[in-house]
Amino acid sequence: MDCVNLKQPDRMPTALFMMFWAAKYGNISFREQMYNQEKLCELTLQITRELDPDLCTPTPLITGFGRLLDAVDYRQVEWPGHGVSDDRPFQYLDREYMSADEYDDFLFDPTGFYYGKYLPRVAGAFEGCEGIASMAGASYFDVIYNTAPFANPALQKSMARLAEAGQEAMQLFACAGKLMGQLGGMGYPSGIGGVAIGPYDNIADYFRGATAMMKDLYRRPDKILQVLDKMKELSLRRLAAQKPMLSSPLIFIPVHWAPDAFMSQKQFEKFWWPSFRELLLGIIDLDLIPMPLWEADCTKRLETIRDVPAGKCIYWFERTDMVRAHEVLGDVVALRGGMHPSVMTMGTPEDVDTAVKHLVDNVWNKGGKLILDTAFGIPDETPVANVRAMYAAARKYAG
């Protein structure tokens, strides 16, 4: 929190975030990590005790949800043992889940669009829920007449499947809550409280698909801006409802479409940044801490993205040069990350030690409010010795 508030703490904090690296550490398959929640929690406790970070990972919510994916018949990813081999991470399926002529349907009635079209496309358990969407607009006796869709066998089947999925979800939350309670009792707060998605990324990734969204920038620019504003409002409403249940104020925002190579600076400033900035400000208004993970290289965006209130955010960078990020953003936001994935996966422990020292000398010792971490968490294939070297070097040079 000192880093967030732009105060220099007595030592450089370290964070621990991992996807399937726990499987490598524990010598189990990725599939077992996804389906054996007890084993995953056991490994998380063991890893956290050994590495002794200042922020830990709610691992069941990151990768321990294989049974829940099965229960809802989820269709937007392939996962270990379900579309990819047992030792491969999940793979997102970039497809067009909302057609170009459905923008207005989404804008007019987002909830109806979700139940009537979107959810049945992305998860089989929602097939049959289309009748729920027709209830909007009903009043007086029409309300009771609109119970008729619930007699439809397809909707009843869907409700039964969703009830089973709901039980699976509650078990997952209980597992994660128990783990985070144990870690919290040991002095390790969660490095992620809630999750939000930037409005542009949300629509481009999970609704229109990459190719269709890039075409829409030219064919439907005004419609895109309307949808982005609506999605921002929906995201903030969800976060406000979730706030009482969050174990940490840190709101993780994976950023997919901001990198320098994905769109021009002019497009970034028109389509991407305004709604994202409003999302950040809305999260701050909820007394939460936005923590975007700027994936790939976002060096060209640094001057633009510094336009946020000082002392309110953490900017986590994957491949952006952290020294340059400190030069541009150091008086505005705390920084997280710094360890390049190539060093972690292909280097030696000595290379890792040198990389940490470089960050200490050129960021931390120059007033940078840096929370040391790897890029997008510890890369799955990282040698265990390299991870140990990173945390040891942090204590040696800035502890």
From TrEMBL:
MF term (GO), any: uroporphyrinogen decarboxylase activity
Chain ranges of the Uroporphyrinogen decarboxylase (URO-D) domain: 192-397
Pfam families per the UniProt record, alphabetical: URO-D
Entries under PANTHER family matching the protein: METHYLCOBAMIDE:COM METHYLTRANSFERASE MTBA (PTHR47099:SF1)
One BP term from GO: porphyrin-containing compound biosynthetic process
Name of the protein described by the UniProt record: Uroporphyrinogen-III decarboxylase
UniProt cross-references to InterPro entries, sorted A to Z: Methanogen_methyltrans, UROD/MetE-like_sf, Uroporphyrinogen_deCOase
Gene3D superfamilies assigned to the protein according to its UniProt record, in alphabetical order: 3.20.20.210
